[in-house]
């Protein structure tokens, strides 16, 4: 409850249907470049956010609109003063759809726009600590590492 669910049923990627065999966990980290920090504008309207996404992503209008509204609401929440800020719960976004419909690209571009760290995790199989593969703690550490690089680049 309280999140945005974006589903694109019946879509297939240009490469064909989604593979039946799950792939192992793959983490892709994308450090931001100094020029990317100029993208951030906390006063952007959802329409402006969609226009930014339209420059890079074709289609998925409903998804881009829902994401833009969620981003604007996040920025609004960040501007609230306490104690009201403590009363407004942040919302999560869950994007669901087959391979190749643009979920990752929307998230990557939105992170770039917001000046936020981005990490892509193919988490078809999470492992518990001590087993072969990456565990959730390692994935979170990777995200923190990207955030540190992001902050260092902002200070340069």
Automatic annotation (TrEMBL):
Transmembrane segments: none annotated. GO terms for biological process: proteolysis involved in protein catabolic process. GO terms for molecular function: ATP binding; ATP hydrolysis activity. It comes from the Eukaryota. It is found in: Plastid, Chloroplast. InterPro entries: ATP-dep_Clp_protease_ClpX, ATPase_AAA_core, P-loop_NTPase. Keywords: ATP-binding, Chaperone, Nucleotide-binding. The keyword DNA-binding does not apply. Residues 1-24 are annotated as: Disordered. Residues 93-141 form the ATPase AAA-type core domain. One of its GO terms (cellular component) is HslUV protease complex. Its main location: plastid. Belongs to the ClpX chaperone family. HslU subfamily. This is ATPase AAA-type core domain-containing protein. It comes from Guillardia theta (Cryptophyte).
